[in-house]
Each structure stands twice: as C-alpha cells, then as structure tokens.
Amino acid sequence: MQLGGKFKLKVRALSRHDHLGSFLPANGGPEGRDGGADSVYDFGEEMATFLADSSEVDADDQGPELDSEISQKVMNLEALQRIASRGIPWGGGMRALVWKLLLGYLPEDRDSWDGALVEKREAYAKLRSELILNPSESGGEQGGAADGPLERREIPDGDHPLCLGEDSIWHRYFQDAEIATQIDRDLERTHPNSRFFAGDSKSSRINRESMRSILLLFAKLNPAVSYVQGMNEVLAPLFYVFSSDPDAQQASDAEADSFFCFVSLLSNSVDHFCPHLDNSPKGILSTLADLSQLLKANDEELWRHLELSNKVRPQFYAFRWITLLLTQEFGLPAVIRIWDALLGNPSGVQEMLLRVCCAMLLCVRRELLEGDFMANVKLLQSYPRVDLERLLNVAGQVVTPQSRGPT
C-alpha cells in the first residue's frame, strides 16, 4: 500500500530525533506542578474549579445561539468561529461537534455528516489494520488457519523473524516497535495526575492504547516527520474532548476522529517539529521571530527590556508555547478553552496562537519589567496563573500586521 495521499503532510526529509526533549517538564505538565506527584484527580473536578474561578462570560449563555446554528441544514462556519472564540458551552457534546466542523473533519452540509463519518472511520480502520503490524498474525500469503504445524517451506522468507531485509514484515515491525516504545514512554507522562490518561485502570489503558495507535499511524504515514516527543501533548485535548462526548456512539469512535483532526491541526505547523526546517519560512525560528515583532508592535518598551536589556529572546520560553499549542502552560480545562479561541480564529490557529503568546507577555508586564534575565526566564518557563478570559481578551486586542492595515 502506498503511504501518503490526503493523510500525509508535506515536509522535506529529516532525521528523526526528539526535537523538544529539553523543553518538556520532567513531571509531565502543569498538573504535576499544581497537584504534586501523589495528587490524582479526574478532570471533572478541575473543570468545576476552573469554571468557578473563571471570570468569563458564562459560555452557557451561548447555548441557544449555538443550538440554532447547529440546527441549520448548512453550517455557517463564520458564525461557529465567532461562537467558539467566545467559549463553547461545557457539556452536551457541543465542543466535540464544533471542533470537528472547524477542523474540516465534518462537511458544512448537515445531511452529509453520517456518510462522511462512516467513510472516514472505515478508512481509519483500514489504515490501522494494514499499517500497524503484527507479524505473528499475518500468516504470510497462505490465508486461513493451518490444520497442523507449519512446515518450513510454508513460511515465506520475508515473514521469518530472522529475516531483516527491508521488505521483511518483521523488519518493519521492529522499526515500528522502536517508535511505539518512545510513544509509550511519553504517554506515561501525559497528564500523569488524571485518571483519564494515567494509572492502571482498564479505561486509562484503553485510552493510552488508542493514542499510541494514532501517533504510530501518523508516524508511518509521515516518515519524514515520524513521531516527535510532544505530539502526545497536542493529541491529548482532541482525544479527551472526543472521548467525553455524551453520545456513546460518537465517543466510541474517538480514536478515528482524533486521528483525522490531529492531522488537520498539525497540517500548518508540522514544520515546527522538524529541526531541518527551523530556518524555513514556516519553521519554528521564523515563528519565534514573528512573536518578537508582534510584541515590539504592541509594547516596544517591554520588547526592549526583554530582548535588548535582558537578552530574553523568545527561544528561551516560547519554543514550547508555540510547538505544543500551550498544552504545557495551563491545565487541560484552560487549554480546551484556549483552543476554542484558536480554532475559532478566522485567520487560522497559528495567527491566534501568536496573539495569545503575546498576550501572555503583556499580562505579566509589570513583573517582567521589574525582573532580570534569570527571573524573567523562570517566570515565562513556568507561567503563573492568570485570569484566562482577561488573557483571551488581551489577545483579541493585540495589533497584528493584518489588523493594522496599510500604513
């Protein structure tokens, strides 16, 4: 089977290694910092605290408007973007549905949803069965079960475990096993204080197995990128939201849905995971330079203090912010709310991501102006708790080259 097609991202070849390793916290993310190593809780508890502490305009007020939009025969994506940017109501499965629409997974025509979902889910099942190998079950080309012990002549050379030629199914299996081992290590550190992702319960093991399959399949379809540490963190919000759909049938297909939405989400930012492309127009260094210019355009005093006086450049703090879509800077409920704004931005996820990153600097302006190099790097690498809705409001007011218009 030929790899690629619409599931393959376009990037130039590179050697595979962990581009983000030194930037990922050893404790597995913001929950570890806040809860401590022995603190285990459900996200439902954190959701309740998050909603109680937030000063946001109640997203549930948007429920009737969202219901009205979703009930239309043809979706108005501009209206859905506007609603999402203000926060999608919690519960009811609305977020899963809206995210699928905004990521282009579901078509705008409501009558086409069922057919599109069946097609995509069957395509995923086919890819999974063909590309995630288990040589011991392959049986070669014989087909059917053997009545007795296999004779040596019945085992094709390419199916023998000691045959390590490039065309051998075992050679490919061992290559996959190396990637799967790295994925498993990273998944063990994904939200380690959450029962949804971590622990030895049957449900958490099933969730990790599904995420491993998604990431391994992505790596096989995109060998130039393969798997890079940190992709597990980007997948986690998607898989959590889709698995939490109160519609049991939709939730049961969270693995397939998450795969396609993960591919869509990474399609415009995959170069950030590729060291060979760091200096390309879409590489991470170019994006960090864009953030620097955005800060300069909105607060030149702060920009001068950070970059000229303190020598605190975005490479020291924003590499992880941008590459992992802020998943390591906030708890999952806050990340989900931020992603509403990212996915709801008409100019795209990356444009809104830079706005939010700039707003994160503006929201701690006083502390940064008072700090030196060490204090500011420490502050930005372990971002403090802030009023999330205020942060997003500031992000909405950030002046960009597009919003400024011609001079």
Automatic annotation (TrEMBL):
<dbReference type="GO" id="GO:0006886">
    <property type="term" value="P:intracellular protein transport"/>
</dbReference>
<dbReference type="InterPro" id="IPR000195">
    <property type="entry name" value="Rab-GAP-TBC_dom"/>
</dbReference>
<dbReference type="InterPro" id="IPR035969">
    <property type="entry name" value="Rab-GAP_TBC_sf"/>
</dbReference>
<feature type="compositionally biased region" description="Basic and acidic residues">
    <location>
        <begin position="149"/>
        <end position="158"/>
    </location>
</feature>
<protein>
    <recommendedName>
        <fullName>Rab-GAP TBC domain-containing protein</fullName>
    </recommendedName>
</protein>
<feature type="region of interest" description="Disordered">
    <location>
        <begin position="134"/>
        <end position="158"/>
    </location>
</feature>
<feature type="domain" description="Rab-GAP TBC">
    <location>
        <begin position="89"/>
        <end position="346"/>
    </location>
</feature>
<dbReference type="Pfam" id="PF00566">
    <property type="entry name" value="RabGAP-TBC"/>
</dbReference>
<dbReference type="GO" id="GO:0005096">
    <property type="term" value="F:GTPase activator activity"/>
</dbReference>
